[in-house]
Design a protein that fits this description.
- The structure holds 2 protein chains of 2 kinds.
- Chain A is mainly α.
- Chain A has 5 helices and no strands.
- In chain A, helix 2 packs antiparallel against helix 3 (55-69).
- The longest helix of chain A has 57 residues, at 100-156.
- Chain B has a single domain (18-161), classed as Glutaredoxin (3-Layer(aba) Sandwich), CATH 3.40.30.
- Chain B has 5 helices and 7 strands.
- In chain B, the strands form 2 sheets. In chain B, strands 5-4-3-6-7 form a 5-stranded mixed sheet. Chain B has a two-stranded antiparallel ribbon with strand order 1-2.
- Classes of the chains: A mainly alpha, B alpha/beta.
Chain lengths: 157, 163
């Protein structure tokens, strides 16, 4: 029973978190949910306007809702928002000159990192074999001297 | 890597670059706070350099900014229009009565719609608009005496000289 109650609270919290506007048209409703999850709340910058309780987020949700009711497309609504708040309002910024670094940098850093690891491992391997050879060579010459000495001694006896 | 870190640390994430610079001030026709029957729109201000200052009686940093705006208004170098953002008109009027009124007029935006058109996300915000109705500068957050001396007054003088 306790668990059931707990589960109930979990469910009720997620589904009744914020003002829920319902559009009559299910496609528009779906677009509303997509859009509000793509737009950033500018006051609480790490939340989407769908998640945020801030007044501005609520106003922006209203704006999205009204524009959908007027029959505006998703692209038109996103354009409306970026015209006013800049690319920053988009959680997934568009790929263009100014924002390209956001998209390219993670991949570039991964490649760079792998390259550094590769070079590092290679260098280590090379220097280890080199070291090994010199040690062997040293041993060899010492051993050879010893062998020569022993042989000479052997000759004397 | 160090360069990225340095740049990252010196950026202010709360200051979002405004896409409005050098664009026409979005139009509106809004009721004046003191005389709700009268409306004001940016078209009425063509030919003047003006500031649009977004304020509200619930906004704590507006209170700090207010004396500085009063001083600026006393200089009579620029028209200051207030955008009373998501506020209760009675509270707003009382606020101006107690703290002084630097605005030639304040317009009301109780639903925050004009605010959205101007990309307002943090009050106070101040826009500088030239004689042709083009936004030339935007400041997010309270205007300080330093901002007035170093940024606003030189810019206003420059814009007043333009035809």
């Amino acid at each position: 029973m306790k668990y059931l109650l707990f589960a109930f609270f979990l469910i009720s919290q997620t589904s009744y978190a914020l003002d829920s506007r319902q559009l009559a048209d299910p496609i528009k409703q779906e677009n509303y949910e997509i859009l509000t999850k793509e737009l950033r709340c500018l006051v609480c910058q790490n939340q989407t306007i769908a998640d945020s309780n801030a007044e501005l987020a609520s106003d922006l949700r209203r704006q999205v809702y009204e524009m959908l009711e007027q029959g505006k497309t998703n692209d038109e609504i996103v354009q409306f928002m970026t015209d006013r708040y800049g690319d920053f309002v988009l959680y997934k910024p568009a790929f263009k000159g100014k924002t390209s670094i956001l998209w390219i940098a993670p991949g570039a850093f991964l490649v760079l990192g792998l390259l550094i690891v590769y070079i590092f491992i290679r260098q280590k391997r090379v220097s280890r074999t080199e070291q090994g050879e010199t040690v062997n060579a040293k041993l060899d010459s010492e051993k050879q001297k010893k062998i020569r000495r022993l042989l000479e001694k052997g000759d004397q006896s | 890597m160090a360069v990225f870190l340095w740049v990252g640390l010196s950026l202010k994430p709360s200051e979002i670059p405004s896409p409005f610079i050098n664009k026409p001030a979005p139009s509106f026709s809004a009721a004046k706070l003191e005389v709700p029957e009268e409306k004001l729109s940016p078209a009425d201000l063509i030919g003047q350099v003006w500031l649009l200052n977004v304020w509200a009686s619930w906004c704590v940093s507006c209170r700090g900014e207010h004396p500085i705006l009063n001083n600026l208004a006393d200089k009579n170098v620029v028209t200051i229009i207030g955008l009373n953002y998501k506020d209760d008109p009675a509270n707003a009027k009382q606020w101006l009565d107690t703290l002084g009124n630097p605005y030639s007029a304040s317009i009301t935006d109780q639903e925050g719609r004009i605010g959205i058109d101007y990309g307002v996300y943090g009050v106070p915000e101040t826009f500088v608009i030239d004689k042709k109705g083009i936004i030339r500068h935007k400041q997010t957050g309270p205007v300080t005496e330093q901002d007035v001396q170093n940024i606003l007054l030189p810019l206003i003088a420059k814009l007043q000289a333009e035809s």
